[in-house]
Amino acid sequence: MSPATQVFSDEELEALRSFPAIGKDELIRYFTLTSADEAFLRKFLRPQTVLGVAVQLCTLPWLGFAPDEVKAAPPAAMGRLARQLGIAVQVLRGYGASREQTCTDHLRQVAKYLGWRAAKSLELKELDEFLLARAMEHDSPSLLFRLGCEYLRSAK
């Protein structure tokens, strides 16, 4: 049994890997494209790719990751992006269908565009120290997990 399954049930793990419900404030904050975002997205040629990458572009800052099933994004988020880009939301059904690695390749490009990167050993040590200090205050593994996620998201 892995440490994650000791802290989280199967249902909780599945929820952590997927899109949560989105509120109006989050929708506006995270799913509003800038002109620079649109320029980045327009380098992708196919409408389904533009919309799929747009979902990843907005989801990464929102959740700190992009769920594997991009097409399962909240309908309000997909609709908002589709309207901003002038693309029919239905085209997202074809995103990533031709190649399994497509979404991962696009996510790497999105992360680079947003300035996100893999943590280096010193940064992981800083995360360890941050979590150790929080563990002295709290004894809830799920709270420490959420605090760690927030820490990583803010550090990109």
Number of domains: 2
| Class from secondary-structure proportions | mainly alpha
Radius of gyration: 17 Å
Largest beta-sheet details:
none
Q: Could you list the spans in which at least 5 consecutive residues all have pLDDT below 50?
A: none
- Strand coverage percent: under 5%
Task: Tell me the number of helical segments per DSSP (H or I, 4 or more residues long).
Answer: 9
Roughly what percent helix?
Answer: 55-70%
Termini gap: 30 Å
- How many DSSP E strands? 0
Mean pLDDT reading: 85
Order of helices and strands: HHHHHHHHH
The coarse overall form would be globular
Characterize the structure shown.
- It is built from nine helices and no strands.
- The chain is mainly alpha-helical.
- It folds into two domains: 3-114, no CATH class; 121-155.
- α5 packs across α6, α5 (47-63) packs across α7 and α8 (121-135) packs antiparallel against α9.
- It is globular and about 50 Å long.
